[in-house]
Design brief:
By secondary structure, the protein is mainly β. The chain has strands at residues 14-17, 25-29, 32-37, 42-47, 56-59, 65-70, 73-80.
Length: 82
């Protein structure tokens, strides 16, 4: 069992594992997405530009893009994850 935590990881509402890669997970949370990579020791954060909770996330089939949405906003953000 691995637990991950960061000060920006607040009010987690959804989770999505990167396709074909068991070592990357995205967490939709308050005001953005927390991305944990490489045995969950490398952290990245993307602020959701509307300032709303990121309560819907989905990876593209090849795992290169992450779509971020909120039920409180009609804007969808596409994050190119390198």
């Amino acid at each position: 069992t691995v637990g991950v935590s960061h000060e920006l990881q607040e009010d987690v509402s959804c989770i999505a594992f990167r396709p074909f890669c068991g070592r990357t997970v995205a967490l939709g949370c308050k005001n953005g997405v927390c991305l944990w990579e490489k045995n969950y020791s490398r952290f990245k954060y993307a602020k959701y530009v509307t300032g709303r909770n990121a309560d819907s996330i989905a990876w593209s089939p090849d795992g290169s893009l992450l779509a971020i949405g909120s039920s409180k906003c009609s804007r969808i953000v596409i994050w190119k994850v390198a």
